[in-house]
Give the backbone structure.
Amino acid sequence: MRPAILNSLFASVTSLGGIGPKLQLAYDRLLGQPPNGARVLDLLFHAPTAVIDRRSMPGIARSAEGQTVTLDVRIDRHKAPPRGTRQPYKIYAQDDSGEIALVFFHPRADYLQKTLPEGERRFVSGKVEWFNGAPQMAHPDLILTAEEFARATPLEPVYPLTEGLTGRMLAKSIAHALDVLPELPEWQDADWLKTRGWPSFATALMILHNPHEVGGAREAAALARLAYDELLANQLALALVRRDLRRVPKRPRLGDGSLDQKLRAALPFQLTNAQEAAIAEIRRDMEAPERMLRLLQGDVGAGKTVVALLTAATAIESGGQVALMAPTELLARQHLRSLEGPARTAGIEIAVLTGREKGREREATLEGLASGRIPLVVGTHALFQPSVEFADLRLAVIDEQHRFGVEQRLRLAAKGRDTDLLLMTATPIPRSLTMTYFGDADSSRLTEKPAGRLPIETRTVSAERIGEVVERIGAAIASGAKVYWVCPLVEESEEIDLAAATERSGDLTRALGDVVGLVHGRMKPEDKDAAMRDFQTGATRVLVATTVIEVGVDVADATIMVIEHAERFGLAQLHQLRGRVGRGDKPSTCLLLYRPPLGEVAKARLAVLRDTEDGFRIAEEDLKLRGGGELLGTRQSGMPGFRLARLDLHTELMEVARDDARLVLTRDPDLDSPRGAALKTLLYLFERDEGIRLIRAG
Ligand code: ADP
Ligand code: MG
């Protein structure tokens, strides 16, 4: 149970003064994590992304690329985009030194006319970016009248906002939240705090929201303290889970190699050395008397599925069952398709279980799993529902593991007495980060692609040349090519995105004829499967998709990948998308369409992709470039799953946190000491408490 001392922090934001239903809605949108609405602690952890230093006023012409400045300007003219286009709204403004364009994507014109009227003087703060010698500021952080500017404090934190919420309102709510912050026991080691010069948790939050200096030492120390709290909570949770996995002695999986042999004979290819090495590592873990917790990392197309299949063979040979869980229906069915051939040849019965199996078929599968008759099952989240029972689940393989929470992985593993866990991921994770995500799970890497793969030619093309691209595609499909065409998801509105994808498939149908399919996240699973099948069989030649094809899909003879608005995707995501092609024996092409002008960072990112196909290298570059920020500024350089710790600042702290967590559990296994009790509070505070119930479970 969560300690009562945290209740005020877990209360809804409406428990603070001055937050009515309308504001609550805005906070829910900004900070809520369904099913929860925004809570007081979400406000406290909502870190500013910049600090405006009003003393930094170099003038338009002297503002450097990427510099955050305040400009004293006269608003010259508004330029609204033509109706029906997705171009930004621009407002031109001047000072003595030059002219700048203030740029707004998807704005409300009436709001802009009110806040930035033509002919008036305004102070605007934000980041300046230069394109072909012309400066721009996209979505200024702050817009003030001269009067407001005179009254403003010289330093002001800037927060991510949402419609209906101003920075001022947010600052006020955060001040209220700081007022109700209870005095919490110190969970960090006192000497360690002293060595680093870190403040207490409460002081750190206070400094976070009231910075005195941009990039000051005091501010950095406060953020580092909070990041370390979060990292330690994470490492401790992982260590608890892992300890629990290893507490119960395991029956070693001893296979006789009979199924392995039959499966290999049924495969149409030779395994790569990297695959063989991974299989050997996994089998060694399976034979050990401790439960396995291993991560299998391998780029898209590296051939992880067959590694899973052959290690499943060992578990089945030893008399147990295996479950392979995928995050989507589409992927589960694809696994079924690729596994059922070899499995049948080897005499292994294989079943599928997703939300779609109903009625008698479902009953039969459930019965087969409970009785042990079915040794291998492929499925989705449906696999860990309470109605599913296994006679003896010995191996759980979780594909695209990052799509599942720790809790979900554990729930699947809990279906067996001593289940081994194999987590697979197509996102190559930089070495420095593997630990954050997996604690000290062991990891195997598939660094080598199956033989015979041809390199993918990657090109960046301005979206202004889309006509030529369509022409080329017409010629390519006339000679038998298959093409993926990806339209991005923009965060503002799923409706608009869907409309864009639907419209694009219409355009392409008009240009290319009746050979264009469409697949997106809002479709019914049956329709999605049908669209995929049509593309697989060649009934359609172009598949327009939103990012639902991101993970795992395998159509070996697709050779062209077109990605619209490539500049809006993360590097890792682009790399994954590109990996959909280049799987067969014909040369492949990837066209990255971008909307000009491209900022420096965006340019650098696309160049990385053009230069290499090595997923591990791309992951490292991504890590470096992410600190640089992006034009739209939608993504900060945070780590997925973390609220305060940042990739660019806190990687070195991860290792320390891991060692700290280990030491704590060695000295105080049940977290009974005063520090242990405080650490439990920390786990609740960062919502990493799933491990706590494991403490006395064994
Ligand atoms: P991923 O690692 O992305 O899950 P898959 O397991 O889907 O990759 O494999 C991609 C494709 O490569 C599949 O069509 C698979 O049959 C094929 N494949 C796997 N291993 C090899 C190999 N050693 N040689 C040739 N093709 C292989
Ligand atoms: Mg896969």
About this structure: Confidence is low (pLDDT under 50) at residues 627-637. The chain has 24 helices and 21 strands. The pocket of adenosine-5'-diphosphate (ligand 1) is lined by residues 269-272, 275, 298, 300-306, 426, 450, 552, 554, 556, 583 (CB under 6 Å).
